[in-house]
Amino acid sequence: MKKEIMVLRNILESNEADAAVNRDFFTRKKIATVNMMSSPGSGKTELIGKTIDILSSELNVGVIEGDICTSMDSERLASRGIQVVQINTEPFGGDCHLEASMVKGAASLMDLGRLDLIFVENVGNLVCPAEFDLGVDSNVVVLSVTEGEDKPLKYPLMFRTCDLCILSKTDLLGVLDYNADTARMHVLKINPRIEIIELSAKTSSGMDGWISFLKNLVFIKKNSNCSRHTPAGE
Amino acid sequence: MKKEIMVLRNILESNEADAAVNRDFFTRKKIATVNMMSSPGSGKTELIGKTIDILSSELNVGVIEGDICTSMDSERLASRGIQVVQINTEPFGGDCHLEASMVKGAASLMDLGRLDLIFVENVGNLVCPAEFDLGVDSNVVVLSVTEGEDKPLKYPLMFRTCDLCILSKTDLLGVLDYNADTARMHVLKINPRIEIIELSAKTSSGMDGWISFLKNLVFIKKNSNCSRHTPAGE
User: Fold this and answer.
1) B interface test, pick of A147, A169, A203 with most B CB neighbours within 10 Å
2) CB-nearest partner of A4 from B7, B156, B157
3) Quick one: closest CA in B to A1, which residue?
4) Closest residue in B to A97 (Cα–Cα)
5) Which of A86, B23, B93, B184 has the fewest CB atoms within 10 Å of its CB?
6) Which domain holds residue A98?
7) How far apart are CA B208 and CA B118, in angstroms?
8) A70: nearest CA partner in chain B
9) Which residues of B touch A144 (CB under 8 A)?
């Protein structure tokens, strides 16, 4: 067990070093970066697609897409004519999360001079991705209202690591036994400083707050050499 | 990287040995065991609760409940007056999955002479739990229809490891953009031998097939010294 813990510590320390490189790199390039994390099926790809549709007249957006295998999500997004780089973790042992080195490698394949904002869509997993700082400006957790109100209490590290929690698929609220106040209370119990936005990518209800959040992030990045947001794990 | 892979191999080999012990143990005790796996929020606890309500007049059912932290789910189930043992993985580094040794330890706390069937509710995670054989009779993956049709293709190991896939929350089908035929096709593409049951624990639609599956498992276990189902990872 001691050996396992030592190896895990080495992996996390090596990841921290790569994340610091990413942070410096994206700051110099003045590109805002957002790490999108969630359980499988919370609607991350749908949300990113709708977000790009709204932002495309003002901003150049790219996506680094993380999946164990398949390129289905990146194909969905690339059909919008944007830059998408797919990371498949299967050749690396089917990793259940992205690491900073993978993001670094993917970014090196992009035409960065043309980008204002990069979404990193992490592997669908509410546990392991939270342990790996990617060196981005903002960590966002998407929690579908279909998953129930208790998830922040059961998966606390994810909610502690993020600065925004999106409660997604709110168009389904009318047919669920779901108490939105309880969900918000649980999120804030784990992380009192986290922002919460309720939205539906399907109906566009609540998208305004999310778009403002992103525009603010891009504005700050363009006009400063410092990162506004606390990196994951700190 | 080589060191990491070696440590991972050691962990998995050690887990295999513990799983073999569990398999022999539960066979001798003639207790059927089912490992329930899924993303967070697929409705595993709700389904197990409703299943116990239906089976309680015929069978004695116990639950080994796996969570990173909290005992919310075990409290929900224990209110039915059944035996429930909670495993919290947080003291073990917040593990994102159960291991065979944890199940062995939990079973040792139960009054096994009074049980016909044990559900092991794994940590909500569609990736890592599939790598760890627990030495049970059946691995079951619960996939909520709210998660979309593509998950079997994106998380293939989970669907390869299981002998039953439950497509849950079918009461929501009327309000989702979801094609049940596509979902079934994707499940069977990954694992042509898997059984598929569509059900709603909320309305009880489709529960009959699931109850039959479990009764069959218990009957075989009571009347044989051999395990009918292929263990995970084989």
Assistant:
1) A147
2) B7
3) B11
4) B127
5) B93
6) 2-222
7) 19
8) B154
9) 41, 146
Query: A154, B72: Cβ pair inside 8 Å?
Result: yes
Is B234 among the domain residues?
Answer: no
Is B128 within 8 Å of A96 when comparing Cβ atoms? Answer: yes
Interface of A with B (CB under 8 A): 3-5, 7-8, 10-11, 39-41, 67-70, 72, 93-94, 96, 123-128, 144, 146-148, 150-151, 153-157, 169, 172, 175-176
pLDDT in tens, B80-127: 999 999 999 987 777 899 999 999 999 999 999 999 999 999 999 999
Report pLDDT for B11.
Answer: 85
- Asked if A126's CB is within 8 angstroms of B125's CB, the reply is yes
| A54 Cα to chain B: minimum distance (Å) | 22
Chain A CB contacts of B94 below 8 Å: 127, 157
Instruction: Determine the Cα–Cα distance for residues A99 and A180; give it in Å rounded to an integer.
Output: 33
Residue of A nearest to B131 (CA): A94
φ and ψ of A211, to 5 deg = -65, -40
Q: What CATH number does residue B43 fall under?
A: 3.40.50.300
Is B83 a domain residue? yes
Q: How confident is the model at residue A5 (pLDDT cuts 50, 70, 90)?
A: low
Give every CB contact of residue B227 below 8 A, 6+ residues apart in sequence. B23, B27, B137
Domain count, chain B: 1
- Residue B212 amino acid letter: S
Give the tokens for residue B62: 């116990």
Please indicate, yes or no, whether the overall pTM of this predicted structure exceeds 0.90. Answer: yes
Average pLDDT over chain B reads 93
Please name the residue of chain A whose CA is at the shortest distance from the CA of residue B44: A147
Task: Determine, yes or no, domain membership for A100.
Answer: yes
Cα angle vertex B120, ends B115, B121, to 5°? Answer: 135
Would the CB atoms of B154 and A40 count as touching at under 8 Å? yes
What is chain A's mean pLDDT, rounded? 93
- Nearest Cα residue to B206 out of B51, B30, B74: B51
CA-derived radius of gyration, chain A: 17
Q: Hey, is B226 helix, strand or coil?
A: coil
Pairing status of strand B164-168 against strand B138-144: parallel
